[in-house]
Amino acid sequence: MGKVNALIVAGGKGKRMNSDKSKQFLNIHGKPLIHRTLEKFSMCCDIDEIYLVLPEDEVTYFEENILKKYKFDKPIIIVKGGKERQDSVYNGLISMEDCEVVLIHDGARPLVSDDIIKDGIRYAYLYGGAAPGVKVKDTIKVIDESGFSKATLNRKELVAIQTPQCFKYSIILEGHNYIRKNKILVTDDTAALELIGHKVFIYEGSYENIKITTKEDLRIAELIINRV
Fold this sequence. Notes:
By secondary structure, the protein is of the alpha/beta class. It has helices spanning 33-42, 59-67, 85-94, 114-127, 169-181, 189-194, 215-227, and strands at 3-9, 27-28, 31-32, 49-54, 76-80, 99-106, 129-135, 141-143, 149-152, 159-161, 165-168, 201-204. The chain has seven helices and twelve strands. Strands 1, 4, 5, 6, 7, 10, 11 and 12 form an eight-stranded mixed sheet that branches. A hairpin with a 5-residue loop joins strand 8 (141-143) and strand 9 (149-152). The mean pLDDT is 94.
């Protein structure tokens, strides 16, 4: 059997945080956000290697301030990012050797649980592609260009998709090759599979597996960590 690898995509800037530091390097309860994310995958016994995709101009900062300062149980392989997120994912994918299952995860989701990681690996083996999700709590409206509602979606059929999105390596590479060849922009990696006719299994995520985007998210993450 091949390796089970994590591919962490960390390209977020601090614009919505009003920070001159990229959000992955901001501290949450005394530790950099990206350290907490990497630590979750490093501590998982089912992960073999971790590939971290960073903007080229942030590689040195990461090496000096994270990699040299903290110890990780698994190898951290740094990959330079691309123009779009999907270009960064592709760079990470083609950097891997002997990989059977890959978990693609947002660097800005530091509260992912070990259960979500392990469930994703199991479902990737079973179905080829899987992603965690949570049921939508709010009513979702479709609006027109003027801001008026024109439709109400059935909340029972809606799921907010999280990461890690977990795949058999050969299948997700095929999906990314397809969107590159056809110049298709996707918002997440499950879409790349759907475009080549492959269904993605959605399993139970967690409302605590939040993506850090704003200052409010940082405060929520700290409350969750303090509670645990």
